Amino acid sequence: MAIWHGGTVDLAQLTATGADSMPGLLGIEFIDAGDDWLKARMPVNARTRQPYGRLHGGASMALVETIASVGGSQTVDPAINAVVGMEINGNHIRPAKDGFVTALAKAESIGRTTQVWTVRITDDEDRLVCLSRMTLAVIAAQRAG
Fold it and tell me: How far is CA 38 from each of CA 1, 6, 29, 33, 124, rounded to the nearest angstrom?
């Protein structure tokens, strides 16, 4: 059974929503979804690399924050609730130097007041680049703005 409020997600709309903020600046695009997971990708390029030519850990965390927060937002009625980040962690396993990295975010727990998401970031060869977990708070929509 799908966890999404309204039953499905519109990937193009999720990408467009972030076009004028950090997700758009980093080139993050949503590419797939299942019953309890979302997938997005981000280019490894001059915008997302650190000076040594490797994917910047902060860019990885921005990808995690984006996909988990967007995933969480799709599980609540936006007229009533919003989700905001409470905690994020990430283990950077291996470098990525070019191509794309792909994030797969899976809902581990969708509660009334908190959500927990696991995010796996892989490179173009499906090798693990970063393993992360994010906790979201579910708050009243009027408190979000």
Answer: 15, 15, 11, 4, 17
* Closest-CA residue to 109 (of 139, 75, 140, 77): 75
- For residue range 52-87, what is the model confidence (pLDDT) as tens digits? 999 999 999 999 999 999 999 999 999 999 999 999
Active site (annotated) includes residue 65: yes
Of residues 65, 87, 108, 125, which has the active-site annotation? 65
Domains, in order of start, for the chain: 11-144 (3.10.129.10)
Q: What whole-number percentage of the chain has pLDDT above 90?
A: 96
Helix (H) or strand (E) holding 37: strand 37-43
